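User: I've been going back and forth on whether these two constructs are worth ordering. Before I decide, could you fold them both?

Assistant: Sure. I'll take them in the order you sent them. The first construct and its structure tokens:
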Amino acid sequence: MTLVINRRPANGDNVRAITFDRQGPATEVLRLAEQAPPAAPRAGQVVVRVLSRPIHPGDLVGVEGLSGVPRQRHSFPVSPGLEGMGVIEAAGEGSDALRPGQRVAFFPVPGSWSELVTVPAEFAVPVPAGVRDETAALMLVNPLTLLILMRAVEQAVAESAGGPVVQTAAGSTIGKLVSSAAKRHGLPLINLVRSDAGARALQDRFPDHPAISTADPGWRTQVREAAGHRGVPVVLDAVGGSLTRDLTSLMADGGTLIVYGMLGSGSTALESLALTPRELTVQGVSVSRWLSRTPGQRAEDVSFAASLAETDPDLFEVAGSYDLADYAAAIAHARRPGKTGTVLLASPAP
């Protein structure tokens, strides 16, 4: 793991932030800047000094844009990121449950790649005492994504004739969370990873779920055998691209392809998948939809996330932690094939 160098802002009144004003390659458009601290929090807000924040694929999509979509320009520099953890520096009225000095995790709060952020009190989640800062930085987005995915999977499975679920990118943080949840709920799962070594490691960790490497030329046959030579009713896919055609070829007619990421290369035309004659469903799922849940439902989800961080911290793996100034190296690490865990950007505690 990369050591975090204890750096301080050059100007005591300013704070550091990674910013960009136009979309493009991250290493070209991002820069480390100093900016004025935020204003005093209003009612229902807290100001948080961010100590650690993850680099999620979606953060980089926000910086670089999507293929085929015109790139955006911003009238003023903005900071990436939606998730992080830190310490409350000031609390506005109506935030009685939150106090200065308290550790909190937060999501969704734009601009987490800054050292100070203003957080709506409803999105500031107290960090349990036994949870480490690095775990707390990952405490919300991935578990909330897990809940959204599992709800979609359970609904699709209930509407099918039964059978195992196939998931891609099974060695990722989300993939391991899904494997753990599948074990708890007795959901038959077939895990796909892109290397033989990754398949062996995942099989050792989750022996109840077959782990298959797509680097093996016979991986499709192995999936069919693991599925009992039946079509797979549900595929949970974070890869997309050229892999989509192979995945749908393994599916049962009437099956559902749940897409929540675009980690792969290449593309697959929808008209080549015979969606209509096979009655296949393609369903996109995003954690951004989480805000559409009621406050009570969101509170239950957050409680689950905090409890998972306490009871299963090993599911919140950290690949490395870098100071904000080393963001280029951190992004390169986040994109490194075969990495295990999530890369963090850290700031020194005051």
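The second construct, handled the same way:
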Amino acid sequence: MSSAHPRSRTAVIYPDCDGKPIAENTLQFEWIVTIKGNLDLLFRDRPDVFIAGDLLWYPVEGSPKICTAPDAMVAFGRPKGHRPSYKQWEEGGVAPQVVFEVLSHRNRPPEMRAKLAFYERHGVQEYLIYDPQTDGLRGYQRINDELVEIPDMRDWTSPLLGIRFDCSESPMRILYPDGSPFLTLDEIAAQRDAFARERDAAERKRIAAERELNAAEQERNAAERKCIAAERELNAAERKRNTAEHERNTAIQERDQIARELESEREQAARMAAKLREMGIDI
């Protein structure tokens, strides 16, 4: 009697790394970091936009060999968060809508044609390629089932991202929807340092102004105290003047009273003398 054993399934492994470097040179790496970092800033308030750099994307479940790692990718409708890789069937079937590739001297036309075919086949809506060595920019947009090259990338605005590519200068500039440029980490640090210096200068001005205000307040208080003291002195002088005026008036009244009394006495003496004379008495 024989027994049948069920065939065990082998778990499919989806590697988190393809063994390739993120970048071949510092210039390429700086552009990758700048694009990915500024996209993070652009959509920092959107919890439903996932952005990654050099993350392996597996579009087909059960086929780990079908994968690629865009230098930067944007998936609308997917939550932010860390992932070891982007497995499309675990992301509600949502393919990254926008991908960026930053070229190095090692990229060859066959490789780039294969990437274009991959992105076209698996649902990318916008595919942007930048070569920092030559300052060359190419772009593709999905029309029906094809990624069609955009004929003129000068001053082109991404319908999905809202960012604009200004090719009037070299190197090319990527601009936010408000017109401000994507900045490198060094430029962001320099801007932060400039803001810090301006903030410190403003704080020093505030402290100096506060000191001046306090000094002015002290001077005002001192002047007010002097004014109060002067007013008191004036009131005291006024009281002295009133007292002196009163004393003068009293002295005048007393003098007039004495004068009246003397006049009355003289009149009485004259009347007395007149009577005596009438009586024949000489005095």
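Notes on the second construct follow. Residues 184-283 form one domain. The first strand starts at residue 49 and ends at 52.
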